[in-house]
Automatic annotation (TrEMBL), chain A:
InterPro entries: ABC_transp_permease, LivM-like. The chain crosses the membrane at residues 31-51, 63-84, 105-129, 135-154, 201-223, 229-249, 261-278, 284-306, 313-331, 343-363, 370-388, 433-451, 485-505, 525-552, 559-577. This is Branched-chain amino acid ABC transporter permease. One of its GO terms (molecular function) is branched-chain amino acid transmembrane transporter activity.
Automatic annotation (TrEMBL), chain B:
InterPro entries: ABC_transp_permease, BCAA_transport_permease. This is Branched-chain amino acid ABC transporter permease. The lineage of its organism: Bacteria, Bacillati, Actinomycetota, Actinomycetes, Kitasatosporales. It comes from Streptomyces adustus. The keyword Protein biosynthesis does not apply. It is found in: Cell membrane.
Automatic annotation (TrEMBL), chain C:
Residues 22-268 form the ABC transporter domain. This is ABC transporter ATP-binding protein. It comes from the Bacteria. It comes from Streptomyces adustus. Keywords: ATP-binding, Nucleotide-binding, Transport. Residues 297-328 have a biased composition (Acidic residues). The lineage of its organism: Bacteria, Bacillati, Actinomycetota, Actinomycetes, Kitasatosporales. InterPro entries: AAA+_ATPase, ABC_AA/LPS_Transport, ABC_transporter-like_ATP-bd, BCA_ABC_TP_C, P-loop_NTPase. It holds the Pfam family ABC_tran.
Length: 607, 310, 350
């Protein structure tokens, strides 16, 4: 197989016949993509390096390990999509929205993961000499697949005419913009054809399969043991998801899940509950429960930000209020109140305390423009921390034990079920963190329930209406202040509720857990980022956003000190290029990309 | 316990520093309705800019009389560069985006700036000593002005005078006011709004940089986190004065500074409040003041109630 | 000059005309030194379509905003079916006055159906707990809202687009949707702010039909328009607002025949107009002396006898008229006389 390295064709090719991004005839390109895919698959069964010094042991023939598995998945996906594009019988269902976009992304996923691995081997071990033939093979195969995929034809966008009077800098900008739209068009795909009505048991089976896949991906991500594997995982999962999205499978899956919403939601919880059973020790369950706390709070914030459009920059303080409240009535020796409430009472106390603070903060500010709320909540977050620090007996009354926090919070005991002990369920050992994982899952379920039900009701519509256009919403008879206050208070008390569990999970609550921004989630900035990254106004968005934002710093230890810096830059870039987040709400997506589709300009000024 | 005049002067000095930073918030907000959350960090980088000039550019042992103006230039240079860069590359592309987008960008920018200084500025992981003016405090009547406050004592009124002149007398200043009132009409009237916005950012950064040098001299040390709380306070000052009103920012700053100082000094005398008088509570009182103002006079001290354009 | 304002084309089913739905008296709105609306009186009776016209910047929309609680009038008061309207726009809607906006203000990223459901807000009760716990009655209320919303969409002809996003509707349909959304609050009075702006003649015709149909539902309508043909086809009574003051009020023929209206639109002083300076002085003097008086007597008297009795079209501007004003209230509906007194002060003192 000859891979001629064609120079990438300048994107300014006239938009006559549909052609690819690079100048290989489409037929050859398609063959190349298929062949490259197959070659990649084969190569994963070979050894890539000679020593097991590179993590994951890539030295074995016939048995892919570590990163090879990821490349194998990517290669298989590429091959399948490519074969489907030939119209191979029985594969057509894979590509309801057309194969080419999917092939491109799948090939990209394979290429990125494979080359990342090869480069990582070379740099880790010092030179390309450490590669075995399999390593070369996978590099060639995935490159061939990518080049082939890029040669697939697509509809070139029309270039806007250039104004000859512009400066050369503007010409440059103009060309760059056109090049970018061309690249975007190259990866575009059609819309998926709607799924026909299947027997409902088939649809439910599909949902189960989708959820199982989701659980598998999540578990795999949590369980990755070394940096390289996690990066490989991110590459494969990210581009792979994009490939599935372009193929139209995601759209079809969401159509099916939309038909059985309740089953999907229940199924998702069953899948989540199955997570501790997939883990052999409590270490990953620990990660699981922290992610869940983070995700739940993010989801609560999404009611406030995503639905009602209120920017709350001190949300973590409500988590803190709940946690402190629960800790103080937990019977901890460092609490000034020597009482020990049962959990349900502590949970109520926590939620109620947050509610009170929510109303205290919300009532004066929610009458005003939204920006004031942002700054007041930000101030509140900071003041909460300072106050908790001060109430230590020297700077102020002794309530919170100052910066040492309230420690030695006893484990929960609900109806005789000791959360601190290891239990044996169905032959699986379920440790402390797994116990709390289940409890937290219940709290998550409560938040999801509140989100779904309130979102799809009179009050939820009022929230969205306020977010969309407050003046018009008022003119529709909505008491804006009241409705916003409800959203704010609900958000606050849900965070407080989550806080009550968090206090028990972490043994200790200290003021420093509740910062505006810090390296460890949850903190207000990360919570907001989880909502924005995932997608505002959706349920899945914050959950995925929170998982990613928790796992990335946790898994990529090498980022270390630059983590927050990278996070800040990522926020800026995200707002610039994909403000609607990973899982766009259909509403939000439209709102953020106002340019093209709106038939009329909906101005917001001057009635 | 100090006597009242001394406390008032202390409060006014603290407040003029808040006011200097608040100008940046209020100007930008007045024109583009954006809370430039990163303004606190622009202030912070200004302090580091001044420090850089002193530590790495000037020869060791330069007299502060010579060094201070150069440090000021360094501070302004750094702050303005960052502010204008942020406007150009982070905020401008989002000008027509929903309200949330630029605010989140601002948060990201603020984090990134903080972390960049923390990670790459030598020894910035903890507080760094800021050079001090030689000489002792001087007295006016019974009131003592501390050495660290002398710069503030001189620079704040001068800055205010310059700002007042600029806004009232210059063409750009008037264009700025016009843009603040009605950006679309101002544009139609030939005001180059893009330019006005850049100027607002730059001007705000300039005053923040002056405030930053004052901060370094006043407290004797700077750190990468100094912008967060001070930014918050300065914003509070802007709201207090009536956001969008440039004089209001300064007045709000003074009021906030005085209120904070007096609260710290005298609140412990109130029966039952004896434990809340320490410095640790100053920020809390500032915040309580903000809430009270929003409750009873949301438009701020100088702000006019603006009718919502329906 | 007295003009008869009995409506000709009221359908038998509609409530008898004469019941005052909207009664605005002496509404004045100042922004700083600028008086956008000056001492405007206007009534709308049930079953009536009243038009409000005037050149750009005449203060029509400001007047509208005063009626709907978006602005609080500096002076004067607005009554809906006898009770003073509260100064909050959501309370005004709850009281029974719905409106549309000049620049369409739909909830662009909600579906068409959801937009109308938002309009149902004041007529439904289910709160947060009801939604979360799905209390008994939730599903029933939700279903009833949906049914009513679909009915309204059917009425304006958008039923087949219920699931579309509002922003994806073509312009004319967005206008219709805004009307449907306003109707969802079961108003007794509908305020339309330039409902045909930007429409082609066919669409305008369709809107006309729609407005008549709404009137036939028993809803009184006050409409602002620039399109004269539309207004004169539609309205039983037309008021002309110039420079913040009511210039003329009467039926189509009266208004069309009034040379001052023509002059106002063409921007020329008409014959016999008072000199600009004098007018300005008079106006200023009026503003100083008379306006405090507007509030006190009127507020009391009308509280006393604002039963549904009379279509008291109030006397206009002349300072002395204030006294009679209180008395005219008892006048029978038939004598709904509209004084189209000269308002001397068109050349405003700005």
């Amino acid at each position: 197989m000859t891979t001629q390295t064609t120079a990438p064709d300048a994107a300014s090719t006239p938009a006559t016949a549909p052609s690819g991004l690079i100048g290989i005839p489409p037929q050859i390109g398609r063959a190349l993509a298929t062949g490259g895919g197959i070659l990649t698959v084969i190569s994963t069964f070979l050894a890539w390096t000679w020593t097991s010094a590179f993590p994951g042991d890539l030295t074995v023939y016939g048995y892919p390990g570590g990163l090879q598995v990821l490349v194998l998945i990517g290669g298989a996906l590429t091959t399948l999509f490519a074969l489907a594009s030939y119209g191979v019988k029985g594969l057509g269902w894979l590509v309801p929205a057309g194969a080419d976009g999917a092939i491109k992304f799948a090939a990209l996923a394979t290429f990125a993961t494979a080359w990342y691995t090869v480069i990582a081997i070379s740099t880790n071990l010092g030179g390309v000499v450490n590669l075995e033939p399999g390593g070369y093979l996978v590099a060639i195969g995935s490159l061939a697949a990518l080049l082939g995929a890029l040669a697939l034809p697509f509809e070139h966008p029309e270039a806007d005419p250039i104004d000859p009077d512009d400066t050369s800098w503007e010409h440059f900008k103009h060309r760059a913009a056109h090049r970018w739209t061309t690249v975007k068009a190259a990866f575009a795909s059609g819309t998926a054809r709607p799924v026909g009505k299947l027997p409902s048991y088939v649809e439910i089976l599909i949902i189960v399969a989708v959820l199982a896949l989701g659980l598998f991906v999540f578990t795999y991500g949590i369980g990755t043991e070394y940096d390289e594997l996690f990066i490989g995982f991110l590459l494969t999962a990210g581009f792979g998801f994009a490939a599935l999205n372009k193929s139209g499978l995601i759209a079809q899956a969401s159509q099916i899940t939309a038909r059985h919403q309740n089953i999907t939601v229940c199924g998702a919880f069953v899948a989540a509950a199955a997570f501790p059973f997939t883990q052999t020790d409590d270490q990953y369950a620990t990660l699981g429960v922290y992610i869940l706390v983070f995700a739940t709070v993010a989801l609560g914030l999404n009611i406030v930000v995503g639905l009602a459009g209120l920017l709350d920059l001190g949300y973590v303080a409500f988590l803190g209020v709940g946690a402190y409240a629960a800790a103080m009535v937990s019977g901890s020796p460092s609490s000034p109140f020597h009482v020990h409430f049962p959990f349900w009472a502590a949970a109520l106390v926590g939620a109620a305390a947050s509610l009170v603070f929510g109303v205290l903060i919300g009532a004066p500010t929610l009458r005003l423009r939204g920006d004031y709320l942002a700054i007041v909540t930000l101030g509140f977050g900071e003041i909460f921390r300072i106050t908790a620090n001060n109430l230590d007996g020297t700077s102020g009354p002794d309530i919170t034990n100052g910066s040492n926090g309230i420690s030695s919070i006893p484990n929960l005991d609900i109806l005789g079920f000791d959360f601190g002990a290891i239990h044996n369920i169905l032959g699986f050992e379920i440790g402390r963190f797994a116990n709390y994982f289940f409890l937290m899952l219940v709290i998550t379920a409560v938040v999801v329930l509140v989100f779904r039900r309130s979102g799809d009701s009179r009050i939820g519509r009022a929230w969205v209406a306020i977010r969309e256009d407050e003046t018009a919403a008022l003119a529709m008879g909505i008491n804006g202040f009241r409705v916003k206050l409800i959203a704010f208070a609900v958000g606050a008390s849900l965070a407080g509720l989550a806080g009550t569990v968090q206090a028990h999970v972490t043994y200790t609550v200290t003021p420093e857990q509740y910062l505006f921004a810090g390296p460890i989630p949850p903190n207000s900035a990360f919570l907001l980022a989880a909502v924005v990254l995932g997608g505002m106004g959706t349920i899945g968005g914050p959950l995925i956003g929170a998982s990613l934002l928790f796992l990335i710093p946790n898994k990529l230890q090498f980022l270390g000190d630059y983590q927050l810096f990278a996070f800040g830059i990522a926020l800026i870039l995200l707002m610039r290029f994909r403000p609607e987040g990973l899982i766009p709400n259909r509403r939000r997506q439209l709102e953020f990309h106002e340019d093209a589709e709106a038939p009329t300009v909906l101005t917001k000024a001057g009635a | 316990m100090n006597e009242l005049p001394q406390q008032l002067v202390n409060g006014l000095l603290l407040g003029s520093m808040y006011g200097l930073v608040a100008i940046g918030y209020t100007m930008v907000y007045g024109i583009v309705q954006l809370i430039n959350f990163a303004h606190g960090e622009i202030f912070m980088t200004g302090a580091f800019g001044a420090l850089t000039v002193y530590l790495y550019i000037l020869p060791d042992g330069t007299s502060m009389m010579i060094a201070l103006p150069l440090m000021l230039v360094g501070a302004v240079l750094v702050s303005v560069t960052i502010a204008v860069g942020a406007e150009r590359f982070a905020y401008r592309p989002l000008r027509n985006a929903p309200r949330l987008a630029p605010l989140i960008t601002a948060i990201g920018l603020s984090l990134a700036l903080q972390q960049a200084v923390w990670a790459w500025y030598p020894n910035a992981t903890s507080a760094i000593v800021f050079p001090q003016i030689e000489g002792g405090p001087f007295k006016i009547g019974s009131v003592t002005i501390q050495t660290g406050d002398i710069f503030l004592f001189i620079a704040a009124p001068i800055s205010m005078a310059i700002l007042g002149y600029f806004v009232m007398k210059t063409r750009t200043g008037r264009g700025m006011q016009a843009t603040a009132q009605d950006p679309d009409t101002a544009k139609l009237m030939g005001v180059n709004t893009d330019r006005i916005i850049v100027i607002a950012f730059a001007l705000g950064a300039t005053f923040a940089a002056v405030g930053a040098v004052a901060y370094g001299l006043k407290y004797g040390q700077i750190d990468f986190k100094m912008g967060f709380l001070l930014g918050l306070k300065a914003f509070t000052a802007a709201v207090l004065g009536g956001i969008g009103n440039i004089y209001g920012a300064m007045i709000g700053g003074l009021v906030l500074g005085v209120a904070e100082t007096l609260a710290t000094a005298y609140i412990a005398d109130i029966p039952g409040m004896d434990k809340f008088g320490s410095n640790a509570w100053a920020d809390v009182w500032a915040f309580v003041l903000l809430i009270l103002v929003l409750l009873f006079r949301p438009q701020g001290l100088l702000g006019e109630r603006v009718a919502d354009r329906a | 000059m007295t003009t008869d304002t009995t409506t000709q084309d009221t359908t038998p089913g509609a409530p008898a005309t004469g019941e005052t739905v909207l009664d605005a008296r002496g509404v004045t709105m100042r922004f700083g030194g600028l008086t956008a609306v000056r001492n405007v009186d206007l009534t709308v009776n049930s079953g009536e379509i009243v038009g409000l016209i005037g050149p750009n910047g005449a203060g029509k929309t400001t007047f509208f905003n005063c009626l709907t609680g978006l602005y609080i009038p500096t002076e004067g008061e607005v009554r809906y079916k006898g009770t003073v309207l509260p100064p909050k726009s959501f309370k005004v809607t709850a009281a029974g006055v719905a409106r549309t906006f000049q620049n369409i203000r739909l909830f662009a990223n909600m579906t068409v159906l959801e937009n109308v459901l938002v309009g149902r807000h004041t007529r439904t009760k289910e709160g947060f707990w009801s939604a979360v716990l799905r209390l008994p009655g939730f599903h029933k209320a939700e279903a009833a809202s949906r049914a009513r919303a679909m009915e309204l969409l059917e009425f304006v002809g958008l039923a087949d687009k219920a699931e579309h996003l509002a922003r994806n509707l073509p312009y004319g349909e967005q206008r219709k949707l805004e009307i449907a959304r306003a109707l969802a609050s079961d108003p007794g009075l509908l305020l339309l702010d330039e409902p045909t702006a930007g429409m082609n003649p066919q669409e305008t015709r369709a809107t006309e039909e729609l407005v008549f149909a709404i009137r036939d539902m028993g809803i009184a309508i006050l409409v602002i328009e620039h399109d004269m043909r539309f207004i004169f086809n539609l309205c039983d009574r037309v008021a002309v607002l110039v420079q913040g003051e009511k210039l003329v009020e009467g039926d189509s023929a009266t208004v069309q025949g009034d040379e001052r209206v023509v002059a106002a639109y063409l921007g020329e002083p008409f014959e016999g107009a008072p000199g600009a300076e004098e007018a300005a002085e008079v106006a200023a003097a009026e503003a100083e002396t008379e306006t405090p008086a507007v509030e006190t007597p009127e507020a009391e008297t009308s509280e006393a006898e604002t039963s549904e009795v009379a279509a008291d079209d109030t006397e206009a501007e002349a300072p002395e008229a204030e006294a009679d004003d209180a008395e005219t209230a008892d006048a029978p509906a038939a004598a709904a006389d509209t004084t189209t007194d000269t308002a001397p002060g068109k050349e405003n003192d700005r």
